[in-house]
Amino acid sequence: MTNKPTDPRLLGLFAVLHLGITALTWSDLRRRPDSSVRGPKALWRALSALNTSGSVAYFLLGRVR
């Protein structure tokens, strides 16, 4: 069986991965003080909920080291 973009198992896998990385993002945002986040936390929460790339952008660009 081939993996088509409409394969329900593949879509389910992507949904689980998205929810997992979103949960990690929100957990990190909850623990981090405002001063160590670039931009408003609410914006990062919204971006991560809408698209997985929002979470990736947060971990690459949104955190102050």
The class by helix and strand makeup works out as mainly alpha
Task: Report the end-to-end length measured between terminal Cα atoms.
Answer: 45 Å
State the helix count. 3
Shape: elongated
What letter string, H or E per element, gives the SSE order?
HHH
Beta-strand percentage range: under 5%
Specify the biggest β-sheet: none
What's the multimeric state? single chain
Number of strands: 0
- Rounded to an integer, what's the Rg over CA atoms? 14 Å
Write the layout of secondary structure elements.
Elements: H1 8-31, H2 41-50, H3 52-62
Helix pairs in contact: 1-2, 1-3, 2-3
Sum up the structure in keywords.
65 residues; mainly alpha; 3 helices; 0% strand
Task: Report on this structure.
- By secondary structure, the chain is mainly α.
- It has helices at 8-31, 41-50, 52-62.
- The longest helix has 24 residues, at 8-31.
- It starts with 7 loop residues before the first helix and ends with a helix.
